[in-house]
Amino acid sequence: MDATMRIERILGAALDGAAAGPPGLAAAMHHGVFPRGARVRPRLCLAVAAACGEDDAALADAAASAIELLHCASLIHDDLPCFDDAAIRRGRASVPAAFGAPLAVLAGDALIVLAFEVLASGAVRHPARLAALIGIVARATGTPFGIAAGQAWECEAEIDLGVYHRAKTGALFTAATLAGAVAAGVEGEPWRNFGESLGEAYQVADDIGDCLSNASRLGKPAGQDAARGRPNAVASLGVEGALRLLDRLADAAAAAIPPCPGAAGLRALTRLEANRLLPKNLSRNAA
Amino acid sequence: MDATMRIERILGAALDGAAAGPPGLAAAMHHGVFPRGARVRPRLCLAVAAACGEDDAALADAAASAIELLHCASLIHDDLPCFDDAAIRRGRASVPAAFGAPLAVLAGDALIVLAFEVLASGAVRHPARLAALIGIVARATGTPFGIAAGQAWECEAEIDLGVYHRAKTGALFTAATLAGAVAAGVEGEPWRNFGESLGEAYQVADDIGDCLSNASRLGKPAGQDAARGRPNAVASLGVEGALRLLDRLADAAAAAIPPCPGAAGLRALTRLEANRLLPKNLSRNAA
Questions:
Q1: Of the four listed, A1, A277, B107, B186, which is most buried by Cβ atoms within 10 Å?
Q2: Which residues of A fall within a CB distance of 8 Å from B106?
Q3: Which residues contact A281 (CB under 8 A, 6 or more apart)?
Q4: pTM, rounded to two decimals
């Protein structure tokens, strides 16, 4: 079974349980998770687990899914009227637009909780790995350095943009790599540089997408950074400069892969994925 | 160290880490957790752990604190403009009133995440107990039967009031008892009836408080059930009827305590606590 099928299967199973509760909440959670986005973070997690010599597919699946559930939860809360007030996400109505703010708040909450529940359920064969995995995903999601912290920096008058991007976007990429390693029974920390470089690359690709795509390609409103006065790599470096930066970050990520059984394959995958992040009209191997 | 001091100490330590992140978020989280409410749920968790012959104080502390953090998170989100829009909580401004909806959403999110992080950190000596503890608190918080589900039933046209109260209020009481047992290394399930009876007793006491207290005693607006058309035991049974029901539920809880080293002490504590839940002018031993 390929990585994407594994991820969709376990996400689907995790969400099935919600059907026994309030129907509106179950529908809002489903809408926030399906149909799939790019699933970049869970695929990264599974790729690292495989490169490390994955010995417990259920645990790697659980770690990957937990990370995607937390990502989806953060998007739902980002789209609330009190933040981005976004009508569109992944090419259709956002969860707040489709279900209202109350169910959007609760769907995000329930998905955060579900992420930890899925992780615990997946650790049956290797309970000794669970505490480290919980710590990794929690630090990437909460505060002081996780997604909630990143979003909360938007409420501050003074903001360090590096700190902001590392928390809002980078932290979950780093967590995906660390969690993939720990799920496979190896140490997570040596994977930090790889994850951080990939997180920065993703941010630059997102900046390029925001500037150059139209909304239908992007699945969400384009030009939001300029509209909201947010920093953007294209605005500061130009398109060519941003593309060169993306290349350098992909190189740095590939060079940061620690020695492991699947290092060569993961290096190749890293370059492929960096290119896949770009809008299709900019992909260097678009044919 | 008594139970309350243990709880305040570990909650304080857990929140200290937030100071390295966005100051507004750290302040909103602190405001939502301190100064303390009654800490009914974490004290219950510690009482069960002690009655079961607690062998790992750090793990019992972590379980109790995780449950209180999740409770505080749910109150913060309940007070959002899109739900109760409550200006007052615990006798002063609610988190949304004091910090605005964006930081209130994020403070709730970050407290949910922190609860799981605290739990994982506390399980160092007994990693084999962690997955069960995560499952217990997650089921009490998410959907289909936890707090998020309970709150989401308010968004449905048809609602089974028993299901609603068990999810919104009862689930975390049940979790507190199960988690206390599991943190002490014994099976959790035999404690379910005890927790469910206590959860119902708490709901009845809360109903009595809502009808009979004034806002300054209650620390939140009184008469909210009648104003919002919510079911209330006093409305359906009268004051005396509701007090008799509370007594019966406290008896049922005391009778449901499974055999354990501290059963006698816990039975006495149960009756004391049921009375403490009442507004002071109604307490049978108020002197």
A1: B107
A2: 77, 143, 148, 151-152, 155
A3: A212
A4: 0.94
